[in-house]
Amino acid sequence: MRRLLLLALVGLGAQLVDGSLGMAYGVTSTTLLLALNTGAASASATVHLAEIGTTLVSGAAHWRFGNVDWAVVRRVGLPGALGAFAGATLLSGLSTATAAPIMSLILLTLGVYVLVRFTVSGLPRGRVGLPLRRRFLGPLGLVAGFVDATGGGGWGPVGTPAILASGRLEPRRVIGSIDTSEFLVAVAASLGFLVGIGSESINFGWVGALLLGGMIAAPIAAWLVRMVPPRVLGSAVGGVIVLTNVRTLLLSDWIAAPAGVRYAVYAAVAAAWAGAVAWSVRQHLADRPVAQVATGDAGSGEPATASS
Question: Can you tell me where the transmembrane regions are (predicted)?
Answer without folding.
Answer: 99-120, 181-198, 204-225, 263-281
